[in-house]
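User: Structure please.
Assistant: Input sequence and predicted structure:
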Amino acid sequence: MQIDCSIKVMDSLVSIVVPVYKVEQFVVDCLNSVVQQSYAHIECVIVNDATPDNSMVLVEDFIAKYKGDIQFRVVNHKINKGLSAARNTGVRASTGDYIFFLDSDDELAPNAIQSSVDKIREYGDVDFLVGNYELIGGSFYHPPLCSNELLNNNFAILNDYFLKKWYPMAWGKFVRKEFFIENDLWFKEGFLHEDEAFSFQLGLTANRMVTLPHVVVYRYRIHPGSISVDKVYKNYSDTLSIQLENIYDLVNSSANYNNDVAVDYFVTLLHFFELDVLCRSKLTRREKRHLIKMLMKKAYLIEKLGEMPSNRCRLKYGMINLPYLLKKISYRLWSRYKG
């Protein structure tokens, strides 16, 4: 049985989904990183999300000149629909056994596909694989990928998600297409920070995951358009909506999880979200009040996950539930205390 599974994985077609929108500076480097892969069975699904610049001119010229074995297909949106919709379109157009999401301003690391397929082949069919990544054009701290190479039960996968042992980004992951479809893992269209919702659903549903902690699979490019320094209201509201929905989904799921770890994760996440809204953001007073109201209305969901695991956790949760004026004073004092 193991031999048959290995043969299946060895011949697997990998569909690389590349959404394109305003990336004329980077898209050729992105596609070059695809065609330089050593793995033979690749299709590259390019989704033109109605980009207004010359990105697709460069893409079409690149494809016309390419003479290798990789199968290219282009799907066009008539209007701009956003990254989530473009990824969903790419999945629907794909024919591969595994899907890999590659943003068109980033690059694949050399031999990324072969290394990942080899690891999947080693352990047999898996729901998804997480590879390591490196930065291009800048730096920032990101926690290391430190999950075990193989996690073969949902409890361990979800627990490691809460402990931030594997990355929440959609890129850098191989997802089995059959698993994607069966578990309805479509990206939430119209939302920012859609990766967090997607990866949480992976953690909630997957039973078999492998990692490549010592192999760089993805090269993430830092440039002015890649990181939002001045967050706008939609960034905050979408982030909050997704995290509250994640809590709701966990409460209503049949997943077995570590209550203490889950409660601490969400309390800490929402505590620092609120701290950012009140003390560091450039939101208007009205926007801040609305976000805080949204949070306080649904914060009770955390209690449904289990008891507070520590006094520190209870303090954070208590601050979330303070009246607005007391909350504002408390968070300013907290912010000064934390430096």
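The radius of gyration is 21 Å.
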